């Protein structure tokens, strides 16, 4: 099922989320529902608070077929720095640049309850950080350097295409 997206400003987007203690069938269903909701909105990532759930769960898929389901994710290592443009399903029509490490290692649990670790670079690293920020009540606009008008997005992307 699709959930409505919580739109900024909303207190639900500003609270640190609770860790998941055990992976239940309900949680697995929630992961599916989050994915469906994300795709329905053409998103590349979604975090549980964006559908009103105060738990440390996020889904990321920047390349079709390469879905990451992150339960209790933490960044254990980060390196480098890059500035690139971000948007957010909870902040429609706002896009802007954020400076972030361009390489991260994320430790998380998958839907089987297995502890996993993934090393990510470039936009995937950025997407992980954006979603993990959500789980800490942070939004990209908090650290936005420069807002990019929606009608200039495409031009910006072309000029800054470095992956
Ligand atoms: Zn977001």
TrEMBL record:
Keyword Metal-binding in annotation: yes
EC number(s) on file: 3.5.1.88
Coiled coil feature spans: none
Keyword tags: Hydrolase, Iron, Metal-binding, Protein biosynthesis
Chemical reaction(s) catalysed: N-terminal N-formyl-L-methionyl-[peptide] + H2O = N-terminal L-methionyl-[peptide] + formate
Signal peptide limits: none
Pfam families named among the record's database cross-references: Pep_deformylase (PF01327)
Cofactor(s) needed for function: Fe(2+)
Residues of the active site: 131
Broadest EC class assigned to this enzyme: hydrolase
InterPro entries: Peptide_deformylase, Peptide_deformylase_sf
CDD domains: Pep_deformylase (cd00487)
Cofactor notes: Binds 1 Fe(2+) ion.
Sequence positions that bind Fe cation: 88, 130, 134
Family: Belongs to the polypeptide deformylase family.
Record function comment: Removes the formyl group from the N-terminal Met of newly synthesized proteins. Requires at least a dipeptide for an efficient rate of reaction. N-terminal L-methionine is a prerequisite for activity but the enzyme has broad specificity at other positions.
Name used for this protein in its record: Peptide deformylase
Originating species: Candidatus Enterococcus willemsii
Taxon lineage: Bacteria, Bacillati, Bacillota, Bacilli, Lactobacillales
Encoding gene (name): def
